Amino acid sequence: MRKGILKVLFESRFYIALYISIFSHITLVIYSFNNSDSPYKKTLCGPAWIYAEEEEKELTFQMNFGKIGGETGNAETSEDPGEGEEGEDGDGNGFSKGKYKGSQWEELVKDLEGTSSLRKQYKNDYDLINENSGVADSYIKRNRDYEDIIIKDVLPTIKGIRDPFRVDIENADDNLFVHKERNRIIEEFRKGDESSPPITMRISKEGEAQPKSPLTMHKDDRTRYLDKSLKQKKEKQLDEFISRFMGYDPDKGDLSYFVRDLYYENLQRLAYPFSGDPSYFAIDYFQENLNKEDFLRQMMAALSSNMGTNTGTEILFTIENIYEIQSRALEQYFQAKEYLKLATPEQKQTLRYETLRRVEEKYRKLLRDKKIFTIKDVEEAYTKKRIDIIDTMISKTPKGYRIKDGYFEKGRILWEAGNHRKDSKLQSEAIKTWNRISNLPSNGDFLNEKAYESIQLLLRDLGNVSDADRLPLQSKDQIEFVLRSRLTESMNRKKEREDKLLWPKFKQENRRN
Fold first, then answer.
1. Which residue in 221, 213, 186 sits closest to 109, CA to CA?
2. What pairing do the DSSP bridges indicate for beta strands 51-53 and 201-205?
3. What Cα–Cα distance (Å) separates residue 68 from each residue in 180, 226, 375?
4. Which tens digits make up the pLDDT trace of 58-82?
């Protein structure tokens, strides 16, 4: 019997060897694939760790807009980000700050260390509160992200303020990658470990994208979605929106309206004055500018693939609005710079004054490099950039989509700049810009229609004057009033909504009960 078994094995030796060889090779391939970023170990224009996928064929770059996670920034729900403790330098357990020494992130790590015990070193008290301000106590006593105001970029538009807007578009993908990598390092530090994965970029084949379907989500449905997500961190809202909705058709359906609603209803917030001490309002204005950077970086990167679509037009309107708000934030910066000089020793020991001091110090050199020394410099630089953005929108919007709003906003920017500089030529240019609107196609919403009609009626009563020097002072004041009050109704609705959903007046309700 033994000889028979040996005979069978001998006669089948070829098949047995073939089976063992196939089994071994399959095992080796599976092991290699599961333990490698790429089975071919290629490096494409950078280290292999930044690539989640590689292809042999023609490749195109595509950013992954997935959630990085853990970012703070929304005062309604964020916890104190200064409680994390870093690990020993390079010990492998915890945050290894040594690996960032000499890199572009060295200053970031120093700032993280310098703010980790900020709340323990400085008082977070409330004084000089105006009891008749009408601002809810829930807003006054809300948590504020002092650490992020210092560490992150509350004035992200300064760096490229002197560049043409096309340069901003060209650099958008790189800026988003750096932005996300910075946030990843912040998250690592605050968690006290390095478990968060490095930022990845996906490489996809040309023509891989599938046809996009139009989004169907009517106004009532969008409102319910936005109301439900309003209390979430703004970064979380934006990441969820991009991952769920930005894959829909940018021209057909409701995506363009949804982008507009997301920004103006949820991500653009109001700051309320409630104290005779201006430092409170400055902090809150910077607080609301925290997430302007996140929206700016994400949507600038999305703009390159959506330019020339309805959604791209809405993105450009939101970006222009960010620059307008950033110019006001810089006004707060220069005002804070002045009253910091007059701060008392007691004020210098408060969390808000120390935060403003560090913010002033952080941007001092950058503003000097950009030749922005006064509020006048801010107005001139930001007016130029905002007109550049609007001109881009006017030239790229498809089939005249919202082009009337584009010309109205350009005229408003010119008029306000002329008023600020006492330059009637700019105001004459504004009038000529508004006069072009009547000949433009009607496609999409014209949100400034009422304000436009009021200005046109005023100009017609004066004989269709186009030279601002011929306008009576009273007429100029009337135009100013129309421009200032054009958003009154929408701002009142916004305030009522935020008061109801974010800042309920608990004390008043308790008194009634």
1. 186
2. parallel
3. 7, 21, 36
4. 333 333 333 333 333 344 444 344 3
- 356-378 pLDDT, tens digit each: 999 999 999 999 999 999 999 99
Q: Give φ, ψ of 87 to 5 degrees.
A: -80, 180
Give the count of alpha carbons within 13 A of 133, CB side only.
Answer: 18
Residues 6+ apart with CB under 8 A from 56: none
In 3-state terms, what secondary structure has residue 52? strand
- 292 burial level (CB within 10 Å; 0-12, 13-18, 19+): buried
DSSP character at residue 61: E
E strand spans, 162-295: 201-205
Q: Is the pLDDT of residue 84 over 50?
A: no
**Sequence-distant (≥ 6) Cβ neighbours of residue 310 within 8 angstroms:** 250, 251, 255, 256, 397, 398, 401, 444
Rounded to 10 degrees, the C-alpha dihedral 6/8/10/14 comes to: -150
pLDDT given for residue 203 in this prediction: 38
Q: With residue 63 as reference, give the H or E element that holds it.
A: strand 59-63
For the beta sheet containing 59-63, the strands, ordered from the edge strand earlier in sequence to the opposite edge, are 51-53, 201-205, 59-63
Per-residue confidence band for 93, with pLDDT thresholds at 50, 70 and 90: very low
Give 209's DSSP letter.
P
For the chain, what's the residue count? Answer: 513
Per-residue buried b or exposed e for 66-98, using 16+ beta carbons within 10 Å of the residue's own CB: eebebbbbbbbebeebbebebbeeeeeebbbbe
| pTM summary value | 0.80
Q: How far apart are CA 431 and CA 418, in angstroms?
A: 11
Separation CA 214–CA 255 (nearest Å)? 8
Whether residue 287 contacts residue 372, with contact meaning beta carbons closer than 8 Å, is answered with no
pLDDT (tens digit, 9 = 90+) per residue, 271-301? 999 999 999 999 999 999 998 999 999 999 9
Instruction: Please say if the pLDDT value at position 511 is more than 50.
Output: no
Distance CA 29, CA 20 (A): 14
DSSP 57: S
Tell which residue, 258, 269, 267, has the closest CA to residue 224: 258
Beta-carbon contacts of residue 455 (< 8 Å; ≥ 6 apart): 434, 479, 482
Q: Distance between CA 163 and CA 271 in Å, rounded?
A: 29
At 196, the pLDDT band (50, 70, 90 cuts) reads: low
